[in-house]
Each structure stands twice: as structure tokens, then as C-alpha cells.
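Worked example 3. Consider a protein that binds 2'-deoxyadenosine-5'-diphosphate.
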Amino acid sequence: MEKTYLMVKPDGVQRHLIGKLVQRFEEKGFQLIGAKMFRLTREQAEYHYEEHKDKPFFGELVAFITSGPVFGMVWQGDNIVALSRAMMGKTNPLDAAPGTIRGDYALNTGNNIIHGSDSPQSADREISNFFRPEELMTGDYPVGLPLNT
Ligand code: DAT
Ligand code: MG
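Given these inputs, the predicted complex is written out as C-alpha cells:
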């Protein structure tokens, strides 16, 4: 099953959007297999955004993503990488369509609420930067079983 790493960035946490964002992905039909609130270390942030290390905004990006707690999640589902990116909307909120997360909640490219992996390979790399294997549910865990059985 395809997995992705989604992360409510510090601005999304500060604006109390965790619940609304989780709800969107649950309602789409994806399965949450791990989640936690934490603050990125500088090392984790530099590794996470390594592809941007030579860009002029890299310092600002690392400062922003380490500025406060994030809500990191691992989700799975068919084609989840492409579908969750579509739900997030374009990186620059000026280009993000209304109805997408960034289109609905973000005003500028730096503070754009949410991160999502851009390929299954990036997802594996990002998940292992933030989660230990034992922190993730494996396979299709049972849902809706009666309690006390
Ligand atoms: P995405 O988050 O949509 O995958 P990205 O990987 O190109 O986008 O960039 C990572 C983050 O870096 C992005 O969410 C916001 C920031 N960023 C990207 N381009 C930027 C720019 N031109 N100026 C400032 N911040 C930028
Ligand atoms: Mg990216």
C-alpha cells in the first residue's frame, strides 16, 4: 500500500488547523497509520529539506519549520502521494485553487500550512527521518471491531 508523510507545519498548528486537516484525509478514505506532535531538530529539518539546501530561502525554511511544534503523520492509500498533493494545492498559495488546503488556508509560500511527500521514494526517506518502524501500524489494521471482545 502506498504511504506518504504529511505534516501540519508550525503555522497550521498555531492556527488550530490540525483537526480540520486530519478530517479531510480521513474523509477522503485514507488510513492513518502513525502520528505525533514534536519539534524538528535542526538536523532533521536540514535532512528533510536537503533538496533545497542551495536555494536562497533554505535558512528561512529551516528556521520556520523548527520554530514550533508540528503534527507529523503517516498515511496510506491507493495513489496517496499524488492524491494528497492534489488536496494540498500548489506550493505558492497564489496558484493554489480554492478548495485545496493551501488555497483555503494559506496566504504566502513560506507559511503554507502543510507538507506532503512528492514521491513514494521521498515518502520512505521522510518517514524514516521522523518515525521508528514500531511507531507505525502495519498492514490493514482492523477498524470498527466491537469493544470488549
Ligand atoms: P512543497 O512544499 O509544495 O513540496 P517545495 O518542496 O518546492 O514545495 O518547497 C518546500 C517549501 O519551501 C515550501 O513548502 C515553501 C518553501 N519554499 C518553496 N519555494 C519557496 C520560495 N521561492 N520562497 C520561499 N519559500 C519557498
Ligand atoms: Mg516538496
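Take a moment to read the result before moving on. The mean pLDDT is 94. Residues 118 surround magnesium ion (ligand 2) (CB under 6 Å).
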